[in-house]
Amino acid sequence: MRWSPQEAVAAETHAGRFMLSVAFLSLLLQGATVPESLSLADAVEHARGRRAEASGISARVAEARAVRRISWRPVNPTVEYTEVAADETRRLAFVQPLGSLPRLALDRRAATSALHAAAADSTQRLANLERDVVRAYFGAVASERRVTLLLELVALTDSLRTLAARRAALGDISDLDRDQFALEATRVRLQLSRAEEQRAARQAALARELAWDAAALPLLSEPLTAGLPDAAAVAAGDGASYHAADVPEVQRARLAAEAATLSARSLRWARLPIPGLLFQRDWSRVSGVPTLTRVGVSLPFPLFTRGSEAMDAGEARARVAEAQAAESAIDAERAIAAGRARVEESARRSRLAADSLVTGVVRLRAGAVRLYDAGRTSVLQVLEALRAERDAQLLAVDELLAYQEARADLTALVGRSVIPSNR
């Protein structure tokens, strides 16, 4: 079959449109697909791509970069042209102010320091964004873990309540023991209801941090024990080194103070009465009127009191910025010490709760139920074992969450990431 050139062009056009439609449809399907699971690294990357705060952070740096480009430009000259109709006289005047020339180098250095301060501030803001995502992520993981634990306890207490009802009907235990098992099952269900409410709140908080639909959140795949060192590492302590000079907020404050000092020095030069250049040419179409050319200088008045208020304000701003930089370094040292203590102690508590406390109370509860079935202990022992297991399991979850939050706070303080690939 042979096609004419027109038919071949039409066929290629239709085929191209079909391929474009297929590609567009596949993109829509990919965008609408919700992943089955969401890791912590993917959550942080998603937040950086979707949150409006991330674009605002980059905009601050872009603004500082634009200000730096402007700081190197001298003041533009002014050109004036006038014409008098009565005598057909024309005047062209050119004025070039030179007062900004001695300040250009200082203004350039100040703008460079301000740009570096904006970069340090963006580093800190991105670290804070990641910290908020990490805290919300593990908060949702912990709330899901609490619900799972309480659901298991609900199943256990319901089976014990059923068993107690049967034994009470046979006369093996009293009605008081049966009612105590029923009340304990009710208490666990009340705790489950509170845990489910907290889970919904935590998921809504995570959806807000990720700019995600709360109803379409995927399964969170990161375990609550992520990053938790083993017992030997916990005993040895955190070997990472943190210094106040490396904290982005301290760097930002120091660079801002440097920029304020340079700006104050620039304002001192602004007080000097540096003359400007003047060029003027007058001419007329009337015969006999000579053409005049003037070259001179122009001086600002008053000569030496001009700009004193601006200089005083600039020096005051520089002193305030220097004081804030010094206080920021002191606060960073204190926050690093407190943050390291929080991380180390919460890791020690988490490891102790996971390795010793939880296994111990599970074994205690199993033994109490076994002895109760054999008629060798009272119902109070079983209830105490159940409550001890419930409290220990929930305490272990709380300690693990406290460790994750402490780790997120410390890494954000020093501008680092809890995700190894982002460090």
Provide structural commentary.
This protein is α+β, with helices and mostly antiparallel strands and 423 residues long. It has a single domain (37-417), classed as Outer membrane efflux proteins (OEP) (Up-down Bundle). Helix content is 69%, strand content 8%. It has 9 helices and 6 strands, in the order αβααββααβααββαα. The strands form 2 sheets. The protein has a 4-stranded antiparallel beta sheet, with no helix packed on it. A two-stranded parallel sheet has the order 1-4. The longest helix has 67 residues, at 104-170. It is elongated and about 135 Å long. The relative contact order is 0.12. Mean pLDDT is 84; it is low at 1-32.
Protein topology:
Elements: H1 5-32, E1 37-38, H2 40-50, H3 52-71, E2 78-84, E3 89-96, H4 104-170, H5 175-210, E4 219-220, H6 231-236, H7 248-270, E5 276-284, E6 292-298, H8 308-373, H9 379-413
Parallel strand pairs: 1-4
Antiparallel strand pairs: 2-3, 3-5, 5-6
Helix pairs in contact: 2-3, 2-4, 3-4, 4-5, 4-7, 4-9, 7-8, 8-9
Quick overview:
The chain has one domain: Outer membrane efflux proteins (OEP), CATH 1.20.1600. Helices cover about 70% and strands about 10% of the residues.
SS element count, helices: 9
CA radius of gyration is 37 Å
Number of strands: 6
Strand order of the largest sheet: 2-3-5-6
Q: Specify the biggest β-sheet.
A: 4 strands, antiparallel
What percentage of residues falls in helices of 4 or more residues? 55-70%
List its traits.
single chain; 423 residues; alpha+beta; Outer membrane efflux proteins (OEP); four-stranded antiparallel beta sheet; two-stranded parallel ribbon; 9 helices; 6 strands; 69% helix; disordered N terminus
